[in-house]
Specification:
Pfam families: Y_phosphatase. By secondary structure, the chain is an alpha+beta fold.
Length: 538
């Protein structure tokens, strides 16, 4: 395999006219390792001058365009520059682009001249469409760990499909005592299990044998019901959304979408933890909503006061070697404003995210607990809280707070990010402003990585849970790359063990998928980078 040298030349400027339909990342990006890409692209069935785009094994900001030339595999290195929102190709005179999509688009329309090592032209002419299935019966990943749940806990008379280390596919059929394995063969005619019946995709093969008997050595029946796997390659989220949007029959003759099945599974597996302290007679009046307690085992305990209770929980999520720490709480009531500030000072909080209006539909959802601009509030004759600046952009207010101890021994700064366009129990009209908020708060958290971020709406569960879910998955992509495997359902189930009822509605659950899809297209596809930033003036 050779690598294209740094000689890149733009042949002519983009023109209007017929454009290749490549706007969806899943059409041309394949979440495979470099070794598996080489095996796949070396097959005789892969057309000459076709290519795929994939992530480097060694750097999450390096992408590779692997192309099959007439004699060998050629590789074009593409570098992502997150700090300026650009991608570049060529290392002699790098050429900048706004997105991977723009690079692929220009290559397909022959608008770039790329030289390889012997000064010959690299002329990719078509992309190989991602062949990895997006259905819930497909188990993402090639190691045994991803398949262990199907082997250990899969229901009898179910099937699943996964990819082998050689780049092929296998069907596993769970019986009462074992898992029978059936190989799927690949040829120029497509995919087959008997070399008689051929199919263009693995999905077509599975659909066919869901109706007709298989002619396999270990299995001569139709496929049983599918195993449901909630994890998937995040680069394929658009296809996953299409799959989960389809209604399917369930027990009792009813039908529901895959989203409904997943959200119902979350509810069924969200065991209630104990919260006697939260509902005790002395603390009940501190709760904004009687049906939203704070679990005892993760609740924030206030120091140096008569009553240590506040409706707030510590919530943590591990992403690679990084731990994300949050405090999720209700919007303060008049009688809990001082508790809120005690918690902020105690935990040395630098970032607060508010996801509710103070009043919505004439109902008070959250008390305004910070002073007016350039005004101060004294607490316990010990601290002075001052609003020193208000700013922000459309839909997002940014309030800068100074916290000073009266004896001069303590000073801290806190920023409140107030998102104002999220309806209660609903979702924003589009995800872009919310994604901008997530990027802003992540930038600030990077400055204070050991300090928890406070997130609250009114009850501190619906909008709050949705925001934190998005933050966790976005950080997983940020630190593990766009080929990572994500599991939105299992992530939410884990979060619900730390605070009750996070993500309240099916609409909010569906919005998580839609927003991550938009974020991925921002990272890779046709969407442009969000360049607007709000800088800290502290």
């Amino acid at each position: 395999m050779s690598e294209a040298v740094g000689k890149i030349k733009r042949l002519f400027d983009p023109l209007s006219g017929d454009e290749p339909d490549i706007s969806e990342v899943s059409k041309w990006f394949i979440p495979m390792s470099e070794e598996m890409v080489a095996k796949f692209m070396s097959r005789t069935t892969v057309p000459t001058w076709s290519f795929i785009v994939h992530l480097s094994d060694y750097d999450i900001n390096t992408f590779l365009l692997t192309c099959k030339s007439e004699s060998q595999l050629e590789r074009l290195r593409i570098t992502c520059h997150p700090d300026m929102g650009k991608y570049s190709i060529g290392h002699i005179k790098p050429m900048l682009f706004n997105s991977l999509f723009e690079i692929v688009f220009n290559i397909l329309l022959s608008r770039l001249q790329i030289k390889i090592e012997d000064e010959a032209d690299l002329v990719p002419s078509m992309y190989n469409k991602c062949m990895i299935p997006s259905e819930t019966w497909f188990i993402a990943g090639i190691c045994k760990f991803q398949r262990s749940k199907f082997y250990r806990k899969g229901q009898p008379d179910t099937f699943a499909v996964w990819m082998s280390e050689e780049g092929g596919f296998k069907i596993g059929i769970r019986t009462e005592t074992a898992v029978d394995i059936i190989d799927i063969f690949t040829s120029g005619k497509g995919y087959s299990i008997d070399m008689k019946h051929h199919f263009r995709t693995v999905e077509e093969l599975v659909r066919y044998y869901g109706k007709y008997c298989m002619n396999a050595p270990k299995y001569d029946k139709i496929l049983p019901k599918p195993h449901v796997c909630s994890s998937f390659y995040v680069s394929m989220i658009s296809q996953r959304i299409d799959s989960l949007s389809v209604k399917r029959e369930v027990a009792g003759g009813k039908s529901c979408t895959g989203f409904e099945l997943e959200f119902n599974e979350v509810a069924a597996r969200s065991a209630e933890n104990k919260f006697p302290y939260s509902v005790s007679s002395k603390n009940r009046q501190k709760n904004r909503y009687g049906n939203v307690p704070a679990y005892d085992h993760t609740r924030v305990k206030l120091y140096d006061c008569d009553n240590d209770y506040i409706n707030a929980n510590y919530v943590k999520a591990d992403v690679k070697s990084k731990s994300l720490a949050y405090i999720l709480c209700q919007g303060p009531k008049p009688n809990t404003i001082e508790d809120m500030w005690r918690m902020i000072i105690q935990e040395n909080v630098k970032t607060i995210v508010i996801l509710t209006g103070l009043v919505e539909k004439s109902v008070v959802k959250c008390e305004k607990y910070w002073p007016e601009l350039e005004e101060s509030r004294n607490l316990w004759d010990e601290y002075k809280i001052t609003t020193v600046k208000e700013g922000g952009c459309e839909n997002i207010g940014v309030i800068t707070i100074s916290i000073d101890k009266n004896d001069g021994t303590f000073n801290s700064w806190c920023k409140i990010y107030h998102y104002k366009s999220w309806p209660d129990c609903g979702v924003p009209d589009d995800p872009w402003a919310l994604l901008k908020l997530l990027l802003m708060t992540n930038e600030r958290r990077d400055k204070y990585p050991l300090v928890p971020t406070i997130v609250h709406c009114s009850a501190g569960i619906g909008r709050t849970g949705t925001f934190v879910m998005l933050d966790i998955i976005m950080n997983q992509i940020k630190y593990q790359g766009v080929s990572t495997i994500v599991d939105i359902m299992e992530t939410l189930i884990k979060l619900r063990t730390q605070r009750t009822s996070l993500v309240q509605t099916l609409t909010q659950y569906e919005f998580i998928y839609a927003a991550i899809n938009a974020y991925l297209n921002w990272r890779l596809g046709k969407a442009k980078f969000i360049n607007e930033k709000i800088t800290d003036d502290e």
